[in-house]
Amino acid sequence: MRELEDGIPIPAGETVVLQRGGLHVMMMGLTRPLLQGETISVTLVFEKAGEITIEVPIDNERQGNMGMNMENMNMEMDQNGSND
Ligand SMILES: [Cu+2]
After folding, report:
1. Distance between CA 49 and CA 39 in Å, rounded?
2. Domain span including residue 30
C-alpha cells in the first residue's frame, strides 16, 4: 500500500471505484475515533471538477470481511489478477 502522490487518474468517460482491496481513501492523522453509525463529510479534490464534498457513513462492523462479498472479489481478481 502506498500513497498516490499524483492522485488517481480518471480517464474521460470512465469510472474509478474506491473500495477495500483496491483503490481506497485512507484516513490518517485522525484526531478522534470514527463512531459507528456516524456520518462524516469528506471532500474529494478533483483537478478539473474542483472540490466535491460527500457524506460518508461510518460502518466499522464491516472490517472483519474486508468489506466485500465474493462477487466483488471475483470481479476484482478478473480485472487485475490480484486482490492487493
Ligand atoms: Cu490504505
Report:
1. 24
2. 1-84
